[in-house]
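Input record, target 12 of the design panel.
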């Protein structure tokens, strides 16, 4: 199933679900948490758009290794930190926006 996904977009969302003893409750807040590992297994992905959310944590150093078709990345305005592997620029990127995070290191 994941190999069939070409575009993954979660831009500026205000929906989340909280689990309670009696079920799930939708509350107004940014989609957040750490980056789901399944994203890095979507080998046909050409666009990854996750800007303006509440994602946080590090992006695995080898995260982009299997995303050989990735052309557009926008993970701006989240709370990611750490380094991104410079080999990401071996991909056929047209755009790569990681602004407004706490990314360190050199690219």
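The sequence produced for target 12 reads:
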């Amino acid at each position: 199933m994941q190999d069939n996904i070409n575009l993954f977009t979660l831009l500026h969302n205000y929906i989340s679900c909280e689990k309670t003893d009696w079920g799930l409750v939708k509350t107004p807040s940014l989609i957040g948490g750490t980056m789901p590992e399944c994203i890095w297994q979507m080998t046909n992905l050409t666009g990854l758009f996750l800007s303006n959310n509440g994602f946080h944590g590090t992006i695995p150093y080898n995260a982009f290794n299997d995303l050989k078709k990735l052309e557009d990345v926008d993970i701006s305005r989240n709370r990611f930190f750490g380094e991104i592997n410079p080999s990401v620029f071996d991909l056929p990127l047209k755009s790569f926006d990681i602004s407004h995070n706490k990314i360190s290191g050199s690219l």
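Confidence is low (pLDDT under 50) at residues 13-29.
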